[in-house]
Amino acid sequence: MTEKLIALLKASGVHAWEVTDVVTDAWEFYFIRHKLDQNRAVSVRHVFVNVFETTDGCKTLGSASAEVPLGATEDEMKKLISDLSYRATLVKNAYYPLNPAVADEGENVKIDVPAIAKAYIGALRSLPETATEDINSYEIFVRAKSRRFINSNGVDVRETYPSSMAEVIVNARRDGHEIELYRSFTSGECDEAVLKEDLVAAMRQGRDRLAAEKTPALGKVAVVFSSDDACEIYDYFSTRLDPAMLFRHFSDYKIGEPISDALAGDKVTVRTVKTLPGSSENFSYDREGAPIRDETLMENGVPRFFTGGRMFSCLMGLENTFIPTNVVFGGGTKTEEEIRRGAYLEAVEFSDFQVDPVTGDVFGELRLGYYHDGQGHVTPVSGGSVSGDMGEFLKTMTMSKETKRNDNIVYPKLTRLEDVTFAG
Amino acid sequence: MKAPFSPYLAGIKPGLRALLGALQPHFEYLSLLATDSKGLAVRVSRHAKSVASSTMTTERGVVVRAAKNGLYSEYAFNRFDPEKADEKADEILAALNAQFALLEATGTAVYDTPLLPDEPETLFVEKETAEMPEETDVKALVEKMVALQEAALAKDERIIECMVNAQSTHISKLFLTKNRDLSQSYVYSEGVIVPFATDGEKTVNGYQGVADIRGPEIFDTLGDRLDKAVSTAVELLSAGRIEPGEYDVISSPEVSGLIAHEAFGHGVEMDMFVKDRALGKDYIGKRVGSDYVTMHEGALCAENVASYAFDDEGTLAGDVTEIDKGILKTGVCDALSALRLGTVPTGNGKRENFEHKAYTRMTNTVFDSGESTLDEMIASIDYGYLLEGMESGMEDPKHWGIQCILKLGREIKDGKLTGKIVAPIIMTGYVPELLGSISMLSSDREVFGNGGCGKGHKEWVKVSDGGPYMKMKARLG
Description:
The complex is a heterodimer.
Chain A: H1 2-12, E1 16-32, E2 35-55, E3 60-68, H2 74-90, E4 93-94, H3 113-125, E5 133-151, E6 156-174, E7 177-187, H4 192-210, E8 213-214, E9 219-225, H5 230-240, H6 243-247, E10 269-273, E11 295-299, E12 302-303, H7 310-315, E13 326-330, H8 336-339, E14 344-350, E15 354-355, E16 361-372, E17 378-382, E18 385-389, H9 390-393, E19 398-399, E20 403-406, E21 409-412, E22 415-423
Parallel strand pairs in A: 8-17, 9-14, 13-21
Antiparallel strand pairs in A: 1-2, 1-5, 2-3, 3-4, 5-6, 6-7, 9-22, 10-11, 10-13, 11-12, 14-16, 15-16, 16-17, 16-18, 18-22, 19-22, 20-21
Chain B: H1 7-23, E1 29-44, E2 49-52, E3 59-68, E4 71-77, H2 85-105, E5 109-110, E6 121-126, H3 138-155, E7 159-176, E8 180-198, E9 203-205, E10 208-212, H4 226-237, E11 245-251, H5 253-264, H6 271-274, E12 295-297, E13 320-324, E14 327-328, H7 335-341, E15 349-350, E16 359-360, E17 364-367, H8 374-379, E18 383-396, E19 401-413, E20 416-422, E21 425-430, H9 431-436, E22 440-441, E23 446-448, E24 452-455, E25 458-462, E26 464-467, E27 470-476
Parallel strand pairs in B: 6-8, 11-18, 17-26
Antiparallel strand pairs in B: 1-2, 1-3, 1-7, 3-4, 7-8, 8-9, 8-10, 11-27, 12-13, 12-17, 13-14, 15-16, 18-19, 19-20, 19-21, 21-27, 22-27, 23-26, 24-25
Helix pairs in contact in B: 1-2
């Protein structure tokens, strides 16, 4: 069907077009305790078409998109293309060309879905559960996804890559009281070591949360982030490097200028990498057909290269851009001991920690933290909320040299923000 | 007009019946959900405009649910030739048998579940709408939205961007078993205006939306929200930070809806009871709120984006009184969880789409209204805040913690609004304490359907929620 669709698009006279053809075969297993609740298999194909038309003497470009129903007849596809062509003329954006043709170097990895699923089942069954800390339930998703992207400029790339996810609920109980911790793991194939390490830590944290005291009203306090919640902090930086944010003035970052003239702490470095071991996003091409490569986006707090989607990149006059998939954050200069100096709150579990990349607003309700009083005493605490402005925090933020990976993101293992408002 | 049921689904129905027939000898229970939902999404901002036929809920595909030996299995697909039902049956059997082989090889035990009943039922529902998304005048809609976006920019020089989004989806679903034959077709639509304002130092946004179980005709009312969206964005530029603490507050209907959703929406999804993941299981018949708190959940308890005729497991829609005058009465339940708990399903078995598993999910979740006016409620507060606008929420059904991120708080002093605002607001607390502190309700109420709801951090479905203005004590930061 895709070949017929492409032929019809070529013959249609539309200005430009993109076709994305995705075939997914997935296995899913849902467990309550370690008993199988349900097993599922998914076998689907989705074909999407995006038609572009120029207006106002090629000064403006519009697009309209749709999913092509599988089994559509030639006449149905012709009508769809015609309808999209008309709709594309109704919206007017500044003109930009689609990505140019490149040699097909797409990754085509052989995927053994049953073997990956088996690895997950085995890993989740072999955890050191106890009478007081155990696994409540888990869901396993393993996907083999093949994607072909074609556009009217001659791009025609195909990639096949695995992605997998496990969502795990950990219980801890004491004196008749039980709590739960939510953990999810996304990766290419099953990363058993990371899965087990994090879940063993979750069991320990569950135990601590049961013993936690109500967090006191700390007022302004230093907060050290030692869990994946820190990814929200780093997403603030990468989002503000996106041309879509810059062009619309949601970000004021400038190439060659520090992101703040008052950077007194560690300065963040942001790199994109094409391949990151264990990532579920190891693609050679982005969703618009642009080749992905290693690139430094920000170095020691100074933006070096802006990259993102084709339209806003072109509007900003940027060339050779792509939508990043794997991102590595660095710039930390501190040892763990240096980060953990004085009194601070170590936040390890939030109900939902968020950093707004536009406003800089930071907020999250603390479910588990450790209050270090600076005198050697550590108290597990729970409750209350953190808030503040990331635009201020980044001026004195410090980071560990040591990093860790969460799927497609590498980030400093410890991140310290000063003067965070804490409402108990 | 009535939203016409999908000709595609009607056309493949004999083939789907044949597929069920071919699979029948291999399983003790079989059902099938087929979907064909079309949509229209128009997105307009200053520099990026687009038209798409995909929305959050457009889909076309089939999921077969099969049970034997106490185990429920599913196979989802979207390549189907109704003339070749036997081939599809062989494909399904091969895929599930490969999974059974893995489960046997790993010594996996099954969570033994009784067979779903298959009570005879026939239903064909086509709901009313004035327009269909497939047939709407896209040119006129784009022009209307561009005009709104430009009007927002013209209202105040501090407005640097305005996003205007409109999407409408025509849902068609067919549920078949040996004895059940259910078809429904309806249209829901939603639109938002999001202006962004800046003073050079900070950038903030306002947000106003419309949503209803009707067609694209509802976008005619989007313009009525423009002034409020712009004024909120501009007001937020001068907002201060709140001094953290406990305050007397009044939640606007939108915030009341968020509280309903997070507090006793997720907390009484009964698939969580099966896993012992919700405290609510132990509180049925007990007090969880003040006498002012009565809360309903169900596709029939409001007319909004989640108001269907039957759920994704073929259970007819319901209206459940979850909390009656502060006493927790029951939760909501999908079909399999009902079997496991020995209760009845409530019509809350929903899927993100045919490719996803069904879970117990919310539909419309709303607090009942009371007898006070908003003015009376404001006058009753010495010092506190009127809370407006929702950003996000998160619950902890096992611990009854709640987190609501809110747009702003309007200061109330000596029974009057002072004009001072604070933002953003993070409201946290212990659900029974929060609901137990509710002491006044307004006589009106609103229901909002612009949001999506995840289970954990995935499985996004459409829901609506709402309520009246509610006075309570809350911890704000």
